[in-house]
């Protein structure tokens, strides 16, 4: 026991030190200065995390003015995250989507409404049975104007519902595109059990709630 106890204590101390370093790196991400993504061919980009990116991708692609929704990872402190790595919860990243949209047709403010209106806003670290920090809700801002839109809508929702809203608010820094097989997953795999039982019902709830925002083909 005299030999084992010091090793055990050293292991605990090392683990605590490692956790502190990770927390420090993650805090640096939260406190960082946001990066503004310039318009390209008249299209803007916005970034959201709200549970499984398969679900969120399909929701945004049903919205008028959205040209494309891309699945990926954002909000973490590691470089080049992968699906396997992010699923450990140790990279700090969440499954996120990049929304490419026409600001002349749909505003960032409306995209934020879609965000809050298409999830369980009170669930911490997940949506439904998808649980873990990689599934947490994060809404990213690229400048102070976007930040104020997010904070005002979050505050209004808190007052309306009388509950704490789980979504975190992060400065946008970097979006990492996910592996090819994750892209357009709901559209390409309509018979997948997860898609049938989770993604499609979530999409249909959104459609019923915001019919005025849907593309004609939806």
Automatic annotation (TrEMBL):
Pfam families: PMSR. GO terms for molecular function: peptide-methionine (S)-S-oxide reductase activity. Residues 46-194 form the Peptide methionine sulphoxide reductase MsrA domain. The active site is at 52. InterPro entries: Met_Sox_Rdtase_MsrA_dom, Met_Sox_Rdtase_MsrA_sf. It catalyses: L-methionyl-[protein] + [thioredoxin]-disulfide + H2O = L-methionyl-(S)-S-oxide-[protein] + [thioredoxin]-dithiol; [thioredoxin]-disulfide + L-methionine + H2O = L-methionine (S)-S-oxide + [thioredoxin]-dithiol. Keywords: Oxidoreductase, Signal. Its EC number is 1.8.4.11. Residues 1-20 form the signal peptide. The keyword Chaperone does not apply. PANTHER family: PEPTIDE METHIONINE SULFOXIDE REDUCTASE (PTHR43774), PEPTIDE METHIONINE SULFOXIDE REDUCTASE MSRA 2 (PTHR43774:SF1). Belongs to the MsrA Met sulfoxide reductase family. Has an important function as a repair enzyme for proteins that have been inactivated by oxidation. Catalyzes the reversible oxidation-reduction of methionine sulfoxide in proteins to methionine. This is Peptide methionine sulfoxide reductase MsrA. It comes from Flavivirga algicola.
């Amino acid at each position: 026991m005299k030999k084992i106890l010091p090793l055990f204590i050293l292991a605990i101390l090392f683990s605590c030190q490692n956790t502190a370093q990770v927390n420090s790196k993650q805090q640096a991400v939260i406190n960082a200065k946001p990066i503004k993504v310039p318009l390209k061919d008249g299209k803007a980009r916005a970034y959201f995390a709200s549970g499984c990116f398969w679900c969120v991708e399909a929701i945004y692609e049903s919205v008028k003015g959205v040209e494309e929704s891309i699945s990926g990872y954002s909000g973490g402190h590691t470089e080049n995250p992968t699906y396997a790595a992010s699923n450990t919860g140790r990279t700090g990243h969440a499954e996120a989507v990049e929304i490419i949209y026409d600001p002349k047709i749909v505003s960032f403010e409306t995209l934020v409404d879609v965000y809050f209106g298409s999830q369980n806003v009170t669930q911490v670290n997940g949506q439904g049975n998808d649980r873990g920090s990689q599934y947490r809700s994060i809404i990213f801002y690229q400048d102070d104007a976007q930040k104020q839109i997010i904070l005002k809508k979050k505050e209004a929702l808190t007052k309306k519902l009388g509950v704490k809203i789980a979504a975190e608010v992060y400065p946008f820094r970097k979006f990492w595109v996910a592996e090819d097989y994750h892209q357009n997953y709901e559209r390409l795999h309509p018979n997948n059990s997860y898609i049938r039982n989770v993604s499609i019902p979530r999409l249909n709830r959104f459609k019923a709630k915001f019919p005025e925002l849907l593309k004609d083909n939806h």
